[in-house]
Design goal:
This protein is α/β, with parallel strands linked by helices. It is 33% helix and 19% strand. Helix 1 crosses helix 6 and helix 3 packs across helix 4. 48% of the residues are buried.
Amino acid sequence: MFGNMISDMMVKPFQSPLFDDPANYGLDHDNVEFKTSDGVTLRGWLIKGGTDRVIVQSHFGVQCNRAGYCPKGKGLIKPWKTNISFLRQAKFLADQGYSVLMYDLRGHGESDAGPTPWVTWGPEEAKDVLAAVDYIGNRPGFQGAKIGLLSICMGAGATTYAYGMEDGMSARQNVKAMVAVQPLLYNYFLDAFGMPGFLRRAGGKVTQSRIGYDLGDRSFLNDVGKISMPTLVVQNKNDPWTNLDMVKAYYDGLTCDKEMMWLDIEKNRFAAYDYIGREPASVTSWFDRHL
C-alpha cells in the first residue's frame, strides 16, 4: 500500500487538469497538436507574437501542465497556495514580439500518455521537447525562426536528456538559447524531501516495476556537457527541495556560453516558478541577447 502511494505521488500521470486559457490574457493563439517520434500526441497552445523568434516552454512535472500550477485538488498539503500561471510570461514574451509554444508533456494536461504510461522525470519526456522544436521548425510561416527553450524543472531535465540522444537536440540548429529553471534529479529531491528510507524503498520498488528501471540510476548530469547553446541556469538559493551542489554541478558541467542566476526569494521551490511570471524580463532577457 505504501509503495503504491509513494510511487503515485512521484510518477502518476494526469494529476493536474488544465486551469487557464490564453483568452484570459487577450492573447492571439492557435490550439495545436503534434506527434513525437514514438507516436504520442501532444497538445498545446501556440501564442502568436511574431514569426522570427519562438520560445518553446516545457513545464515541470507531475503537478503541472502547460498552464502552470493550480492548488485545487492537490490535497491538504499544497506546495503553493495560489495559481502559478505560465501565461504571464507568455504574454510578456508575445508583447516583445516572440511567439510561444506552450505544450503539455506526455501524461500531463491534455496530451496523451506514452508507451511508458508514467512520468519518468525526463528520459521519456526528452522526446516531447524534440517534437515541440520540430513542430515549430516545420510549421508554415515559422521555417527559419530562431528558437529559445524555456525549460522548467523536469522540462530542463528532459531538454538535457535530449542532448544525449542520438539525432537529439544537437542536430536542431535552429535552437539558439535556453533558460533552465531549477533542474532537479530524482534522488536529490528524495534526499532533500527527507522521505524515510522504508517509504523510499517501497515507492522505488513499485516505480521500477512500472517504468522498467530505477529512476535513481538516470542522471542528466551525464549529458550537460553536450549542450551547445547559450544557457542561463536559474535557481532559488533558498529552495528546500534540492541539493544546491547538484545545481552547481549542472552549471559547472556546461561548456557553452553560460550564466548563473541565483534568486534570493521565499524558502519554497515553487517560489521560483512564480517568479518567472512576476519578473519575466529578468529571465527572458537572455533570449533577447541570443535570438
